[in-house]
Design brief:
heterodimer; A: alpha/beta; Rossmann fold; five-stranded parallel sheet; 15 helices; 48% helix; B: mainly alpha
Amino acid sequence: MKRNKNLKTALSVTAVLLVFAAVFGLISRLLSPKYMTDLEEGSMICAYYSQAQDHDVIFIGDCEVYANFSPLEMYRSHGITSYVRGTSQQLIWQSYYILEETLKYETPKAVVYNVNAMRYSEPVSEAYNRLTIDKMRWSKQKIDIIRASMTEEEDFLSYVFPILRYHSRFDELTCEDVEYLFKTRENTFNGYQMHTEVVPVENLPVKRPLPDYQFGDICCEYLEKMAQLCRENGVELILVKAPSLYPYWYDEYDAQIAEFAASHGMSYYNLLTAAEDIGLDYSTDTYDAGLHLNLNGAKKLSAYFAQLLVQEHGIGDRRDDPHIREIYEAKLKLYDEAAAKGKEI
Amino acid sequence: MPMIGNFILLAISLLIYAGYGILGLFYLIGAVVLSWSAGLLTKRWRWMAWISIALNSLSLLMLKLQPLTGIGWLSVMGLSYFTLQIISYQVDVYRSKYPPERNFLRYALYVTWIPHLFMGPIERYDAMAPQLSTPRKITWEDISCGGIRILVGAVKKLVIAARLGVLTAAISADPEKYSGAFALAAMLMYAIQLYCDFSGGIDMVLGVSRMVGIRMHENFQTPYFSESVREFWQRWHITLGAWLRDYIYIPLGGNRKGKLRKLCNTVITFLVSGLWHGVEYLLWGLLNGVFVCFGDRLKTRCKTVNRIGTFLAITFLWSFFVWPETATALKMLLSVVTTWNYGTFFAGVGTLGLTPGDWIVLGAAVLLLWGYDLWSKKLSGWFAGRGPAARVAVICCVGLLVLVFGMYGIGFDVDSFIYGGF
């Protein structure tokens, strides 16, 4: 009798705990931001997981990659399959762990890293961390990226249980939170965020000298680790500086990257200096006065860079592969429709 | 067996306390060793008790007079609480109320038990010692009742007090801009904030203690339902009130030396209470003493009128907590009747930092608190009568309530309590 009673108690407590876990999970999911129409950058990181992971080139870095390089343009012009795993204010250690995660899914021929983030040797803000990390799949890399990125005010537990961070959204909930409770929508084109507006460069802030141009030790350490990771996986690491006019890319920065590339036998392209060859016109090719390129600019840059990848790095044309063609033609259709609508996607 | 349990709890307490500063830890250990030794030696050398009492009182006095003296080396966390416990032990041993404790571990745990070190309740040794002397059995009853008590405290602290804190902080930060109706609102809101912050903290202390088999005294008994200021002080911060009664008021003569002495003793006791809160609260203590002495004369036959009157009187007195500078507090009190901005109040209160959702949550939570205070005994009895599954369900529901509607995380200092600052 007593044994039966204990069993019944244990079962009923377990049932209550299971219901609680389900409700907790549901509420937690409901309160977490969906990054669908507001702060879309937050959903970029997870869009990759639903892709056919078969890319010859992977781009990593901050907004200068996802706003400037368009993989679909590179496919259209040169048949290159690529994906941009860029996120807002992606710091170099974040790039490293994102690369490490990417290499679990596929082994591209080349990885292109935009070096702009070398200037930041400390976590910038919790908000940017969240945009990069929140939607990552749980893995060793996610744990590492959290531990490396947390600002002083953050705690690890709030990444494990997002309700601890987002509970105050209870009065900001919209239909989007219900609509995307269990699903997501692709906001980018292979990681490229399309902008068609034109805001010409007019007055850039004054270029002030800095007290110190030396990259932080931690940045150099992670760049070294990135180079080693690529070496170990037989992937070519290519360093680039996207042609964004601001924040300023100082000559002293450029020299350090050039030296690193030379000493490691890798290529480094400062595309700022190639703006004329690319054909960029900063009065028509940027959507925010020189910080990022718009679709016009991205088309020019992507075609130029694709040419470089083919000529200098032997990246092949895969338009003959019917499976690839089918995937990319479907993507190009949507891409062109969005471009024709001329609106921000 | 109790030795091992006590040792573990003592070690945890000291480890956590060390996190607040090693100097403070040394002071605490020193105070424990000295008072325990003095207690043992009191039988032989009675003056040892006086020395210990004098040293502890002096430390406390120096801490409280810090704003005047500028001597800040004695900023030891929880000193206001554990010093009163040490003094009560020393006085009781001196009076031979009970023999001195021979077991150092037991005595040390009584003084340093971490949950009540920072905000009370101020326990007496004879109430706590039996629990520290017998083997404690951690039962499901204690865990579940302790758990729900912690969560009730968390609701008070994180859902209500934290929201009200946003409003009172905004108003009190700019007395020039927010006077009149805003000052009145700040006082009313602070009355509830302070109650939720302090009693919420005490709920957590009692809950944690119960979970490890230690029962402590209640510190609140629905104080805002009191019908006079005298009654209020019997139901608010009960353990401090009892301490002041037993170690200040009664030794002064209490009510045994005539009406005038009784009034004087009452006022002196409340002045000491004010000083215990800080030298800047002396006027607040004095006014409370006066209200206690003469407040009963204002009582009517209608309980509701008495309750509202008492609540308003206490609320006005909290103004010295909202604006710690006495001159500002008096100015704000006056502005309630001299600055007539009640017409613009409702438009202005919306800009003080709470969202419409926060206001709804706050209103609902205060109503719930009212109901909880009214029926707390019935609710506790109901909970105690439920089976494990129902108890777990209640704990989960209240926990979820705290998780979703609590104000915590970046920008909020959840482990800071108003009474922890005294």
